[in-house]
Design goal:
The chain is of the alpha/beta class and 233 residues long. The protein has helices at residues 24-32, 52-58, 70-80, 99-107, 126-142, 155-160, 171-182, 197-200, 204-219, 224-227, and strands at 14-20, 40-45, 62-65, 85-88, 93-94, 112-122, 152-154, 184-195. The chain has an 8-stranded mixed sheet with strand order 3-2-1-4-7-6-8-5, with helices on both faces. Helix 1 packs parallel to helix 2. The chain is globular and about 40 Å long.
């Protein structure tokens, strides 16, 4: 926890929204590691069967139950949020120290509508470290962020672009593309730490190349429903 971090700042109050589906194993530790100063924590549960929602309630989070699907869940959580800034955090990702202060500093620039953090992967694997560096380079130089980078956005702008698309995959890419049309996104250099589990349960090189291919195909207009058949989260 970081009690010295402000409850509000130039960007206003920050509401954190976390989508979960059967994350009981790690959600308690993730919630316990959140910084002080958040306006609220909203867990959007997609129908977990492992008791994770009860653990979230016990940790002091608000819980909303909705249909599964990350875009649907994130929108459901955002609809309940009372903050001026929405911070979307995956259940297997930890924020860096000073995260809220960094968000407020970024949003002190009125031209900035949102952004994300540099990517850190919780692994000593040299290849995954390279993946993390490449993701951070992509965000810094190409303005593209993915959901595992703890996206944040001014609430008014989020509503203006229509929130997340209710699609089975690429909801984060679609939102970032919409945000870039209306303002500037910024990269916070301090990295989040995200679990390596989705790379480690299959060949990391294959998983990385497949993800690059999926984003490319989505950009070229291939429907998300088709892409979802080739992706195992």
């Amino acid at each position: 926890m970081a009690p010295s971090e402000p409850a509000s700042g130039p960007g206003g109050r920050v509401s954190l929204v976390m989508p979960v589906l059967n994350e009981a194993r790690g959600i308690g530790a993730t919630l316990a590691a959140l910084p002080a100063g958040l306006h609220e924590v909203i867990v959007a549960d997609g129908g977990s069967a492992d008791g994770g929602a009860l653990l979230a309630l016990a940790a002091g989070a608000r819980v909303v139950t909705c249909a599964p699907g990350r875009g649907v869940q994130l929108n459901a959580g955002a609809a309940l949020a009372g903050g001026d800034v929405l911070l979307f955090l995956h259940a297997d990702t930890r924020l860096p120290a000073g995260a809220l202060a960094a968000i407020q500093a970024a949003l002190a620039d009125p031209a900035v509508v949102g952004g994300g953090f540099a990517l850190g992967i919780d692994s000593a694997d040299p290849f995954l470290r390279l993946v993390a560096r490449a993701a951070t380079w992509r965000s810094r130089h190409l303005g593209m962020f993915y959901g595992d980078q703890a996206l944040f956005v001014r609430r008014a702008v989020f509503e203006r672009v229509g929130g997340f698309r209710p699609i089975p995959i690429m909801e984060d890419v679609a939102l970032v593309r919409s945000l870039r049309r209306v303002g500037r996104l910024t990269l916070i250099a301090a990295p989040v730490r995200t679990s390596a589990r989705r790379w480690e349960r299959e060949n990391p090189l294959f998983a990385t190349l497949r993800n690059v291919a999926l984003v490319t195909l989505f950009t070229l207009g291939v429907p998300p429903a088709i892409l979802a058949r080739w992706y195992r989260p």
